[in-house]
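Researcher: Next sequence.
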Amino acid sequence: MKRWLYNPVLASSLKTRMRGWRTAAAVTAYLGVMLFIAYIFFKISFENEIMHSLSVSANHSVGLRVYMLLAVLQFVLVLLVTPAQTAGVISSEREMQTLDLLLCTKMSPLSIIIGKLLSSLAFILLLVISSIPLFSLVFLFGGIAPEDVAMLFLFYIITAFAVGSIGVFYSALFKRTVVSTVVSYVTIFFLGIVSVVLGVYMMAVHYSQVPRPNDYYVPFILYINPAVGLSDLLSRQAGVTATGVSVGIWGLIFGVSSGLGVQQGWFQKLPLWVGNCAVMSVIAALLICASAWIIRPYKRLRRKS
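Model: Next structure:
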């Protein structure tokens, strides 16, 4: 069992990356920056709350705002850093002409891809996990439960896994690291911006029909956007939801959540962020399998034969 779980690529990368002083310095700097931003934001928000009200709920409101700020900062970190860490794992091996040597080992292409992906995500996951004590400070103000933080970090891990699989796939598909990195960021841009525009347009067209439909309609393209899942999760934790689409974010910005009807089907009955995690996990698994298929060593022999 231990031999089956052991991955030489992952073990070698962890020994190389994690034992230096740079990793500890990077974690310390990251937590220091997040703590400084949270402190400035907390100070400004708390002073504004005191000027307008002296109620006990002011502490809850300030703590919730700080929690939202930290959650968004962490999410942006995952989206920006993960492609840079994973987009060159295979293409760099090609550039150094060591991929063929790696494929000559007893490891399967799938094991190589998984080892490369996990080794690239190790540093990202280290930053995410090390910020748990920083998020726990929000408990002093109330309004956020430990299970809320656990669900948020689970969402981070799934998002990092999905975004990392995109980078690994393009790294296996293209021979140059620069090309795979650029295409990875373009894909993330599509998921973050274009999918929202198309999804909102599809919802607006659907609910503008005459007579107005009363069914529950969320375009599938929104389920592949991790920002949509984070918006729904944070709004639910803040206690502001409406049949799966957040009033605080989607309702105020687009004004379409109030028109959603009765949920139909087991998938639509799930919270939007849960469906988002499920769709991203399936896509990530398919991309990992496709990456292993691309680098398999015997595909050229089959083409020649």
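Model: The CA atoms of residues 10 and 172 lie 17 Å apart. Residues 8-297 form one domain.
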